[in-house]
Amino acid sequence: QVADTLAKEGCSSPSYDWFQTDSSVTIVIYTKQKDINLDSVIVDHQDDSFRAEILIKDYSYIIHVELSHEIEEDFSVRVVENVGKIEIVLKKKENASWKRLGHPLENHNSLIPRKDTGLYYRKCRLISKEGVTHDTKLFCLMLPPSTHLQVPVGQHVYLKLTITGTEIVKPYTPVSDSLLSEFKEPVLLNNKYIYFLIKIYPAGLFTPELDQLQIGDFVSVSNPEGSFKISQFQELEDLFLLAAGTGFTPMVKILNYALTNIPSLRKVKLMFFNKTEDDIIWRSQLEKLAFKDKRFDVEFVLSAPTSEWNGKWGHISPALLSEFLKRSSDKSKVLICICGPTPFTEQGIRLLRDRNFSKEEIHSFTA
Ligand code: FAD
Ligand code: NAD
342: Cβ–Cβ under 8 A, 6 or more apart, which residues? Predict the structure, then answer.
């Protein structure tokens, strides 16, 4: 049935094969898809289980085996994009010849709807924790050497901790380590680090526990999720970002990506809503970026400013939006991204729809 549905969407079922040399084993996956890249491949080798999940549209193709022999911790992943071929090269611990790849485990060699795969976690080490505002910190986690995972722009992951015997899971959106470092594809950096900007709520369930972790402690990180697609940037001319509080987090990679990779882009504007000046995340980086790149503008709006504040204030409103949403030309291709507390996002979407922006022109970030 899944194969039928895929066939209707123009996909045929993936398959795999493997071969070996004295020192390596290569698993080759034929996805028969053109839009496969390194973001589409998630590989983990944990304990006795070797698992590769290939994201193909709304499906996952899974290779899941208990390998017949031991391998070294690190492996390499290559994608031949134009034919959708993936090669995972494992290093043998011993030069013996393998008679079989291994013993099949759950869902091995099957294609299943992504919503049915469940969240898969690996343990990541806390590398650093740095204050950003009075209540928000930049956390750096390191993926294990035996994991290949890249979180696509606009997507989030789930972090999991066991708190007094119960597993607690919350979603967080990875960011770049800074807005000003040159944006490079994680592939080029062979990046093993994932950064998060996380606000600590003293009465919260999860964040105080996260904040208590020591450098070197572990947090479980899930596979990425989210509906944002890079293709939404195609031919884009005006990008408007509406962020409130930590709703700024998806905008970080979006900003970096759009300013670096979208040649059609003329203007990127961020309207950043916070309670007070002290709550503004990366204010000076945003101001520096606006100075450095003339296509980018930032405006701060405070809902509880002090009397010294002479900038914009209030909640999201028709007046603030009408001034902000000036397109570079009448028919320019526009995308508006919005993220923040649910009432903020809902109100924002209503106001944008009232201004006749279409559903395709608005992307809201939610769980
Ligand atoms: P919670 O226990 O959820 O409490 C949050 C606040 O609400 C606290 O102030 C608490 O005192 C108050 N509260 C809780 N229960 C009640 C109640 N019954 N009545 C009144 N007040 C109450 N956050 C980030 O910081 N960074 C991110 O990158 C990020 N990305 C996200 C991505 C997605 C897709 C989503 C949906 C959310 C994201 N969040 C992010 C928010 C994050 O998932 C958590 O909701 C947040 O960290 C709070 O978790 P907590 O368990 O510490 O607090
Ligand atoms: P906050 O309480 O500091 O508020 C920031 C601003 O949001 C306020 O200054 C105000 O302008 C606006 N706001 C707050 N409540 C509002 C309301 N009722 N109506 C209109 N505007 C309102 O925000 P915070 O504590 O940083 O919370 C950020 C929120 O963003 C969290 O709820 C978090 O779950 C959400 N978030 C979602 C995602 C996602 O879905 N992808 C990612 C990151 C954060």
Answer: 366
pLDDT of 325-353, one tens digit each?
999 998 999 999 999 999 999 999 999 99
Strands 334-339 and 362-364 come out as parallel
- Contact in structure between 6 and 13 (CB atoms under 8 Å): yes
How close is the Cα of 345 to the center of ligand 2, in Å?
A: 8
Tell me the average pLDDT across 165-175. Answer: 97
Q: So what's the pLDDT on residue 9?
A: 64
pLDDT confidence bin for 187, thresholds 50/70/90: very low
Q: CATH no. for residue 22?
A: 2.60.40.790
- CA pair distance 296, 299, nearest whole angstrom: 10
| Residue at which a domain ends, from 116, 137, 172 | 116
Cα 97 to Cα 87: distance, rounded to the nearest angstrom: 19
348 lines ligand 2 (CB under 6 A): no
56-81 pLDDT, tens digit per residue, is: 988 999 999 999 999 999 999 999 98
Q: Would you say the CB of residue 341 lies under 6 angstroms from ligand 1?
A: no
Q: For residues 218 and 111, give the distance between their C-alpha atoms in angstroms, rounded to a whole number.
A: 31
Q: Which atom of ligand 2 is nearest to the CA of 347?
A: 20
Which residue range is the domain that position 192 belongs to?
Answer: 121-222
